[in-house]
Fold:
Amino acid sequence: MQLSDFFAGASGPAPLVTGSRGALRVHDLGILRIPSGSLGAADPFVALDLPITVQIPPGAYPVTVTVADVSTEQDGSHLREAYLSLILSDTPVATIEPVPGPDGPPEDGSYFGVAVDAGTVAFFDAAAVTSSMPGDGDNWYDEVFDTGEPGSWFDIMDSEMPLPAGTANIEMPLAPAGENVILAHSGWGDGFYPVVQTRDAEGRLTGVHIDLQVVGSVPDAEPTPQKKSWIARAKGFLR
Structure:
């Protein structure tokens, strides 16, 4: 990915992967606590306990979602989440790169990322899941995620307050120090989404981003079957 094709945290017009133009708006989703320094990224309803991890300085960081208006009339009638971003610094971004894995950077032209099967992505402290979530994960769906009662994670995400519908900032049920999960719907839905990181001119990490592949130029190279699928799906939504 070229920096010129990266729009996380930007407001205003931008190209969509469908080849048309859209407009971006950024929403603050609050502060994410990462006391362990192990940032987890996953579909929280499927793999909260099996995330991709990125090592960052322990701390508490703001998270934003960049939302694209993909409606034909650009009237706000069709919005899609384009990036979920954790911000470490507000210094200007100089470079963008795939996040490394346990054995280092991925092969050229490839990315580590988040597999989505429940239409949602999230950032959280990966090490906090063991101590801050009840049980071993087998009961999370019925007892935490979708209880059918006010306060379930699904209920919070559906609410239009205090954050936009489709997003949430939720404290884990057993969190000893406010460890939380920040969630957003995942662009066009299920799929595989790259996780990238940005650096400033001094090489310091400025952010970690889940690219939901809503914004950017249509690739010049022949897309992989997976990319063909999401480009076709996106164009179908806009018809």
